[in-house]
Write a structure and sequence with these properties.
elongated; alpha/beta; five-stranded mixed β-sheet
């Protein structure tokens, strides 16, 4: 039998605990508002883009196809570079208005429907086959999925654990030992790093065996980039947990980082043609550099030198988060 008195006591105690933690309940109100506002800015336009159409050199507005709604027309300067973007699913259709030709990726669902619209509204364009091996969507999206999985494992795996240690008094006990903060944090990084990399590489090589992903680059280069990226994400999780004592607040802060990265870092779709502000904001997110570098290595065969800019950003980001996290870390 459940005692109503006992149930009420625990129920009221938990309510008081939550309401007295003002930072937590305030964040539970603020975060959804921020998330909705951000999504409204990015996707709130009623004239939403359904297809991204590359036009070289410029679309002919008198043609019926270019007057259709929900088409985002992107003027192209370099045709060869645009053909590569068709292969990588960054454009749904590429049209040369001068020579009356168009390119489409046969493995792109959006490309198929965009091609049907073009053929229904214009009979003048000839179909061209893209040179080289076409990149399947699963090849394109794999680096994003690996990066996203690393992001959740690193941020929540470190952030929640340290906050729970602090809330349960474990950190206060460790403070009484000769253990230094930098030693504790370094051990947390090393522990989470090998676990995340073991899981990530197992998923990659396991799925690669069955699905035969496109891999034009060096495996060691890819592993190196993923390792640097994992360290950057782990230090971000440590920074969030360095002074947070509430699991609810930690969850809100971690979501504040994960949601923008999941939407703006090119995990599921390309930001080609997005607003310049969105592109700029995406460049300050570590997951963007992880995904871009991994995608360049796998699809384009990029070398470590080619992705050195992404690696440099991740290293600087790691040092900054580790330094601030170590300086602001508290045991209780």
């Amino acid at each position: 039998m459940i005692s109503a008195k006992h149930f009420k006591a625990v129920f009221m105690a938990r309510n008081r605990e939550f309401l007295r933690d003002r930072s937590s309940w305030a964040w539970n109100i603020i975060f959804p508002v921020l998330l909705i506002a951000g999504l409204a800015v990015m996707f709130g336009n009623d004239n939403r883009t359904v297809f991204k159409i590359g036009a070289y050199p410029a679309p002919i507005e008198s043609e019926p196809f270019f007057e259709l709604s929900h088409l985002q027309l992107i003027e192209i300067d370099d045709l060869d570079e645009a053909i590569v973007k068709i292969q990588r699913h960054q454009y749904d259709l590429l049209i040369d208005t001068q020579t009356k030709r168009y390119w489409v990726n046969d493995s792109s669902p959006n490309g198929y429907f965009a091609e049907q619209l073009l053929q229904a509204n214009s009979t003048e364009y000839a179909r061209e086959v893209t040179s080289g091996r076409e990149v399947r969507y699963v090849d394109w999206v794999l680096p994003g999925i690996l990066g996203m999985n690393m992001m959740f494992a690193c941020l929540f795996g470190v952030g929640y654990v340290i906050v729970r240690y602090r809330k349960s008094g474990v950190l206060k006990r460790l403070k009484a030992t000769p253990l230094a903060a930098i030693e504790f944090l370094s051990a947390q990084v090393a522990s989470r790093l090998w676990l995340v990399m073991a899981i990530t590489l197992s998923v990659f090589f396991g799925t690669h065996y069955f699905l035969d992903f496109t891999m034009h680059g060096n495996y060691l280069t890819l592993i190196f980039v993923l390792t640097i990226g994992a360290i950057a994400l782990i230090t971000l999780g440590l920074l969030v947990a360095s002074r947070t004592a509430s699991e609810e607040l930690a969850g809100g802060l971690l979501n504040l980082f994960t949601w923008p990265m999941m939407i703006m870092s090119g995990v599921w779709f390309s930001l080609e043609g997005a607003h310049p502000f969105v592109k700029t904001a995406a460049q300050i997110l570590p997951l963007t550099h992880i995904v871009d570098a991994a995608r360049a290595i796998m699809i384009d065969g990029a070398t470590l030198f080619d992705v050195s800019g992404n690696v440099a950003f991740l290293i600087v980001f790691t040092v900054a988060c580790a330094f601030i996290g170590a300086k602001t870390f508290r045991w209780d």
